[in-house]
Amino acid sequence: MPTSMGGGKRVGVAFLGCGYAADFYGPTLPNYPEISLIGAYDPEEERAKTFVAEYGGRLFGSMEEVLADPEVRIVVNLTPTARHYTVNRAALSAGKHVYCEKPMTTNMAEARELASLAAQRGLLLCSAPATVFSRSAQTLVRAVHDGVVGTPRLAYASLDMGPLAFMAYRDWRSKRGVPWPYREEVANGCVLEHAGYLLTWLTAMFGPVVRMSGHTVTPFADQWEGVVADVAPETSFGALRFADGTVCRLTIGWAAPADKSLLVVGDEGVLSVDDVWQASSPVTLRRRVRTTGRDTGYLAEPERLPFVLPPLEHGYDDEAHDLTVGAGIADLARAVLTGDRPPLGAEFSLHILDVSLRFATAATADEHIDVPAPSATRLWGDRYRHPAEFSALA
Ligand SMILES: NC(=O)c1ccc[n+]([C@@H]2O[C@H](COP(=O)([O-])OP(=O)(O)OC[C@H]3O[C@@H](n4cnc5c(N)ncnc54)[C@H](O)[C@@H]3O)[C@@H](O)[C@H]2O)c1
């Protein structure tokens, strides 16, 4: 087993898939001494070549070669979503622990099959996203569990990424120049791509989802003609009840302007994070105070909570992405070394996938009860009234 410079044990890791997302991982790996990067494979050889040149390890000639290498104990699956199931199954069958990018598969039957294969073989199966390991997330989760705002009752969570259809997504390139695979992302839809980023935080704070409803819309479907055959969700709204009783209004989308905020309302105050996409976004507390009867506020001035974790030394040098992706692999590596259960293990990951899939196929308008329509189509009237007109009528 390889050892780190500090003498600690390290776990050999190999990457399958060296596309756009691989550049989020590579720069964060040096933060984690328990990871030893053995190498990488991609059928587009140039991508694997540039990956190992930039981040280390050796070039593998095939997936089979990776899976046959006894030094490789964890396979990181960064292949396109449609390949996740077959690549995960091949890796588990070859006796490797698996860390897979989200979503682990595109349906629950396959995900459950993978989880039981891993259990039978005594292997660990984890899935991204890992932003729940960020300083912001850990500070927020700790504060909620410590009862800083009393009992949590309500949460408002948004991951609106901005209106993708109107952005220059065709030009986006990773650090090594790999184009953003927009056709695949748009075909998967915002929910499969992004719901996990918030669901992991919410589930870590409040326990599993026990009840949910959702509504999915495609407001800019016309913009995707010629890009994808079927437009997947562009925005989903939901209401989720968690095991501890907290209810959350959740929005996931790429149609509205960006809003990546999260608010937890408890009976003793309110906690908030402005941007869950940034690993070091401040966590703010506003405690409930007694009101004087002379004002309508009930919250003290905002105070910034100290982060429970130090900043990471190595990160992805792009202002838009302050992510903690490597933390998920490191946590799996630690679990391989200690025999502990990794937080992002199969049970947790399957639940996040289950809720994401339910959310992605949430009710569309025609499945809802129609509200009886009044005969007039414009209830308000024909024109705007200036306040002066009202006083003239009086
Ligand atoms: N693009 C993003 O911003 C982003 C961010 C986070 C996570 N993700 C997730 O990461 C995964 C990969 O996304 P991406 O954007 O890097 O896609 P990508 O298309 O840029 O890269 C995927 C790579 O996998 C390679 N590949 C295909 N089959 C393979 C195999 N059997 N073995 C090894 N390599 C194989 C492809 O040649 C390609 O280079 C997806 O699940 C996606 O949801 C993407």
UniProtKB/TrEMBL annotation:
Residue span(s) of domain GFO/IDH/MocA-like oxidoreductase: 138-271
Q: List the InterPro entries hit by this protein, alphabetically.
A: Gfo/Idh/MocA-like_OxRdtase_N (IPR000683), Gfo/Idh/MocA_Oxidoreductases (IPR051450), GFO_IDH_MocA-like_dom (IPR055170), NAD(P)-bd_dom_sf (IPR036291)
Looking at the record, the residues that make up the Gfo/Idh/MocA-like oxidoreductase N-terminal domain are 12-125
Q: What is this protein called?
A: Gfo/Idh/MocA family protein
Q: What is the lineage of its organism?
A: Bacteria, Bacillati, Actinomycetota, Actinomycetes, Kitasatosporales
